Amino acid sequence: MNTATVYVPAPDGAPLATELRLPDAPGPHPAVLIRTPYGRTAHHAELRGWAARGFAALAQDVRGRHGSPGAWRPYRDHEESDGAATVAWVRAQAWSAGPVVAAGASYAAHCALVTALGAPGDGRPDAVIAAVPALGLAETAREPAGPERLWARAGWWAAHGDRADSAPDALADALAADPRLLEHLPVTRLADRLAACLGRELPSWPGLWDDCRRDRIVLRGSAARIPLLAVGGTRDPFAEDTMALWRGWGGPARLLLGPWGHRLTADRPPLAPDRLNLGALYVRWARAALAGRLEPERRGVISLSGSGRWLHASEPPAHTPGEAGEAGTRTAAWAFGAPAGLRLLHGAEFTADPAHPVRSDDLAVPAAGPAADRCLLLSPPLARPLDLAGPATARIHASADTPAADWAVRVTALDPAGRAQPLAFGIVRRTDPPGQAVEITVPLGTLGHRLPAGTRLRTEIAGHHFPAHARNPHTGENPVTATRLAPSRRTVTTRGSALHLTVVARRRYVEPVPEICR
After folding, report:
1. Which of 246, 312, 332, 413, by CA, is between 20 and 30 Å from 39?
2. Quick one: how many helices (H) and strands (E) in the chain?
3. How far apart are CA 143 and CA 42, in angstroms?
4. Which of 264, 276, 290, 328 is nearest to 513 (CA)?
5. Distance between first and last Cα of the chain
6. C-beta neighbour count of 349 within 10 angstroms
7. Is 235 left (phi over 0), alpha (psi -120 to 50) or beta?
8. CB 184 within 8 A of CB 193
């Protein structure tokens, strides 16, 4: 059968445009449903793949986008009820065998999850696949510790916000017209500048910063009983949300954490040997989930990027640092100021000036000078290859002379030729007494990487990470409404400060597909 367009009635009667592809074999069939704001027709190849393996496959434009009428209000209205109505519609069709898998990536994963967590009945799917999930408005707008994701939100809202279609290059076009666009204050008025560049209004932009409540889907997921496949990438900005979803899910949960960014296998690192057919894995997992063959306990795998190998994923190590836990990993510390740890190059005292912020889009570091803008440390070359698989954290003893301060930590791997590759990053917001030395913990995400011998670890501690993140004004004002900026003088004490990485002590490789599907 060719792909056909059908219109599924929403609870209020709105016709939701839906692409439908049925298998060539006679039914009835299990179904997979994708609800997306990015255009249903972009999923034709994916629908063909599911149909070729015996699934009725549907891709639907969410309300207010592309072929579906109505108001488009991201993360706020209709996704749960429209999803439930569509699942119930699928089950009522003559070609349906009843079971439905809700699936999606990014915002479409949000749609799949809220449908799966809805009220019991014909509108609840039987399993859910959530890839690189954008869990909600708060999760996508801010880091867990508060700093605002300026570049990503500006890019997404310019491309998709307050419009029925998409303009993927909208932010690039706006920056070409106004190169200092993201520097304008306040952040809540950025939409005015975007409107001047793009010729259209973005009235919902200020309101996206109002929602600060995180983890609603994660908390609801603890009561779920249907199977979950959570798919993420160690280079995806939402990787920790993917991990939290997997760890908190109440039903059978599987995690696949690959060496990818937000576009999954289309976003793998250069020359990566890691190869995995995600489509075939999804189908195999869906069959196992719908047949009730998944074991009830939590299982997961993480890719060791640069090696083509996979390891068991585990909870954060609870064992004594230096000792190997059940997953064969241990926590190793690179102490600041220690000969075998991280040697201080410069910047034990530095100034974080929001008028001249450390940039997120430039891995180059300045030479030592009279006015340091960051603390810079470097390890000696690794004597042998090192496998990292698990959480990374920086614990620093430091002070700021301002009532509010962001602390950004960036770890870069320098190969023997001096080429830089981003390894880990984290940023937290603090409101400590000015001038008081405190211990600051900066989570750096979950790593999965093999570092060759001769690699050095370069660690930067700064007060900004712009334009990826909005600048902290250091005045105590809300960074999205502030219009004044002030410099912040920082002091980092090497004693007691360290970079903590999860090191593979015993290599226990695993095949990802069988592990995920059992």
Report:
1. 246
2. 11, 20
3. 30
4. 276
5. 32
6. 12
7. alpha
8. yes
Tokens of 307: 């090696």
Among residues 82, 132, 140, the alpha carbon closest in space to that of 111 is found at 82
Contacts of 120 (CB under 8 A, 6+ apart): none
Angstrom distance (rounded) from CA 196 to CA 174: 9
pTM of the predicted structure, to 2 decimals: 0.95
Q: Is residue 191 a contact partner of residue 202, using CB atoms and an 8 Å limit?
A: yes
The backbone region for 472, taken as left when phi is positive above 0, alpha when psi lies in -120 to 50, beta otherwise, is beta
Q: Which two tokens stand for residue 56?
A: 């009725």
Long-range contacts, 365-374 (Cβ 8 Å, 24+): 365/458, 365/460, 372/346, 372/347, 373/347, 373/462, 374/347, 374/350, 374/460, 374/461, 374/462, 374/463
Of 86, 95, 24, 78, the C-alpha closest to 60 is: 86
Distance CA 263, CA 22 (A): 27
Tokens of 395: 């614990």
Element at 151 (helix H, strand E): helix 150-160
Secondary structure class of 43 (helix, strand, coil): helix
Residue 319 pLDDT > 70: no
Give residue-wise pLDDT tens across range 90-144: 999 999 999 999 999 999 999 999 999 998 999 999 999 999 999 999 999 999 9
Contact 233, 109 (CB under 8 A): no
| Three-state helix/strand/coil letters over 226-238 | CCEEEEEECCCCC
